[in-house]
Amino acid sequence: MKVMNNGFYCDVDLESKITNCWSITNDLGLLAEAILDFEKPKEVIFKMLEGLIYIYDLKFALINIDYEKIVKAFEENEIVINGNFEKNYQSCYELLNDMGVLLSYMQEKEMSEDEMANAFIGLETIGNIKFENLFDDFAYIVKNFYKIKS
Asked: How far lies 9's CA from each of 77, 87, 126, in Å?
């Protein structure tokens, strides 16, 4: 997204980065399928989950970089960012912590395949709700930028 209005310009790609991170929910659903439909061994599931945590930590960092650019540009132009973007971003990022907690639990405790799949499906559902809220706040920022600067 290149935000430009009345000489104000902020070059970020926040929309696609949020959407890219939102795919974490699809990947959690895929893990549930890998357990139930493809009967992958638990060790493979653990490695896949570890990899997802690492990859999405990097993807979330990219969101944060673009958001900081927007904040800086808005401050330079005396535009106030209202809404809950930061809170909802943190809420989405907490999915990584939840995944880490689940990984540790699964490694330490005996869980059935159904229990593991249900845990991933639960995280997938919660993640979709969190990302929907984050995307709504992103839309709020863009909408108010154009309303204020017009």
From this structure: 10, 25, 34
